[in-house]
Write a structure and sequence with these properties.
4 helices, alpha+beta, 4-stranded mixed sheet, two-stranded antiparallel ribbon
Length: about 130
């Protein structure tokens, strides 16, 4: 992806994204420099999803795929097959379809607002509802 379409000389950015869903423990850690941290196996699993993702891919665990499709039933996912995850074993992994239509559906403001409202997520953003 170009950093700036009007100035291609700035180059490209490539990222990998991975996510998983499950229980975590949240805490503020440290006295001198306190930080908000998420701890637990779920965080480690999400990290492994990212590190095993292909460049410019959104990789997810079966649990994350299930929750995604519950909330955005028309999202398109693809199986990546069985992937060996360090410290976890072999897991079937999925990726989000990279078609422009799929991203437009997922990034649709109304869909996003409905997910936030239905799950009573406090984003600090006024969704107008």
């Amino acid at each position: 992806t170009l950093i700036d379409e009007e100035d291609p000389s700035l180059g490209y950015i490539s990222i990998r994204v991975g996510f998983h869903s499950g229980p975590v423990v949240a805490s503020v850690v440290g006295e001198l420099n306190p930080r908000y941290c998420l701890l637990g196996d779920t965080v480690n699993h999400a990290s492994r999803m990212e590190s095993n993702s292909d460049v410019n891919q959104i990789s997810m665990s079966p649990q994350a795929k299930t929750l995604l499709l519950e909330q955005v039933s028309h999202a398109i996912t693809q199986t990546r097959g069985t992937v060996s995850i360090k410290g976890k074993g072999d897991f079937e992994c999925f990726s989000l379809d990279q078609s422009r239509d799929n991203y437009e559906v997922l990034l649709d403001k109304d869909v996003f607002v409905n997910i936030i409202d239905e799950n009573k997520i406090d984003t600090g953003i006024n969704t107008g509802s």
